[in-house]
Design a protein that fits this description.
Length: 412
């Protein structure tokens, strides 16, 4: 009798557990099914949004829009493949709180290397001599071609003080190892100013463009004028990024009101948008504008507008202009596309893409000298007298030109 009762109880318990398990797995199955439906709907929405954005905003090298081929699989990456190589599908992922440490480079990942877009001032990368347009093929001895973006983040991450070795390939194919360290990336003053020396020659270096850079420039120029400035160097080398409107505001301090700095043409930008100065000229003295291969396109157009509309000279190394404007559009919380929305034209209404610019006074340097110059300008640059910085061949050429221009005999 007892055995029968125990058997019955066991059977009842098994039946209850079985029913509960079936209901559990049914709920799990329903959730998976709903998730698949939601993902399918999300992909469809994302695809349709990408199509709309691209057809309304993207322009090709001829300045024309595109009618996408929408046959086949609805895949955003397939749409991007129909555009120029500059365009990208971007997986944003979860944002992590920044630690505020890094080596100080901005880069694009190519198949076999990282192309350095810019180096941030005051960081270990610039002191190590990492140059814009450098090709980094190895990080800590590991080939970039075999590393995912996630692995790259791990290599560039860590605690302050960690050593990171970058292997850079020179133009002659020679490999150079540059040693950097993870350090705190400190906020830099957007403009570096050197006091007037005995010859009343001033120096302004744009470190980065900010929304109030025109106000800061006005204050600096006013102080220079009060102290009797005779000539000025404007250094546009190695600025990490350009902001269209801020570049125009800088230009307005040195040229007449209404001067065209550049224009952008693209279907999403009402066909053509002119960037004109809106303020009155604040300083009318001989100018030397300093440029190099790290001078980005908008800054180069700023230099060209100053040269064309004043008697300024451009001094430095030759380089090539990018000439197109990119814009990132978010598709979902975690997905975005970065596409070309316009092409830049100079003051002569000439398309600047892939054009080589040539300064009035060319100062060419090999990469070894240029890397060493990066270090010196970050460590021993004199802020009280520009004539103490003539170890920089570009500054030296500009100084000698301005001395001759203003007719002041230099004292050795």
């Amino acid at each position: 009798m007892k055995k029968s009762l125990v058997t019955i109880l066991i059977c009842v318990l098994l039946l209850i557990v079985g029913c509960s398990g079936n209901r559990y797995y049914q709920r799990v199955g329903d959730r998976k099914h709903n998730r698949l439906l939601n993902n399918k709907q999300l992909n469809k929405t994302m695809y349709e949004r990408a199509v709309k954005i691209i057809e309304e905003n993207y322009v090709n090298e001829n300045g024309e829009g595109i009618k996408l081929d929408k046959n086949g699989k609805r895949d955003v990456k397939r749409l991007i493949a129909q555009l120029s190589p500059h365009c990208q599908y971007v997986k944003l992922g979860k944002r992590k709180k920044a630690k505020g440490v890094g080596i100080g480079i901005m880069y694009n990942k190519k198949k076999d290397y990282l192309r350095v877009i810019a180096t941030l001032p005051g960081t270990s990368a610039i002191k190590a001599g990492v140059l814009p347009n450098d090709k980094i093929t190895k990080v800590n001895g590991k080939h970039v071609s075999k590393m995912s973006r996630k692995r790259l983040k791990e290599e560039f991450g860590g605690e302050e003080g960690k050593e990171i070795k970058l292997t850079v390939v020179e133009k002659d194919g020679k490999e150079v190892d540059l040693i950097t360290r993870l350090n705190k990336i400190e906020k830099q003053d957007p403009i570096k100013v050197v006091k007037l020396n005995a010859k009343k020659i001033g120096y302004i270096r744009i470190v980065e463009y900010t929304h109030d850079i025109d106000k800061q420039l006005s204050r600096i120029i006013r102080e220079y004028k009060e102290n009797g400035i005779n000539a000025l160097m404007i250094d546009l080398r190695n600025i990490p990024w350009d902001l269209f409107d801020d570049v125009v505001r800088v230009c307005g301090k040195f040229v007449s009101k209404g001067t065209i700095v550049y224009s952008i043409k693209g279907q999403g930008l009402t066909i053509k948008r002119l960037f004109k100065t809106s303020s009155n000229m604040e300083l009318d003295v001989p100018l030397a504008v300093l440029v190099n291969k790290g001078t980005l396109t908008e800054s180069m157009l700023l230099a060209e507008a100053i040269r064309k509309n004043t008697d300024a000279v451009m001094i430095g190394t030759t380089g090539k202009l990018k000439g197109y404007k990119m814009k990132k559009y978010r598709l979902t919380r975690d997905d975005a596309i970065n596409i070309v929305v316009g092409y830049l034209y100079d003051t002569n209404d000439t398309k600047v893409q892939d054009q080589t610019y040539e300064p009035d006074i060319i100062v060419e340097m090999d990469s070894t000298d240029e890397r060493g110059l990066y270090y010196k300008n970050e460590t021993i640059f004199d802020m009280n007298d520009i004539s103490k910085n003539l170890y920089d061949p570009v500054i030296k050429s500009a100084y000698e030109y301005l001395i001759e221009k203003i007719g002041v005999k230099d004292v050795k």
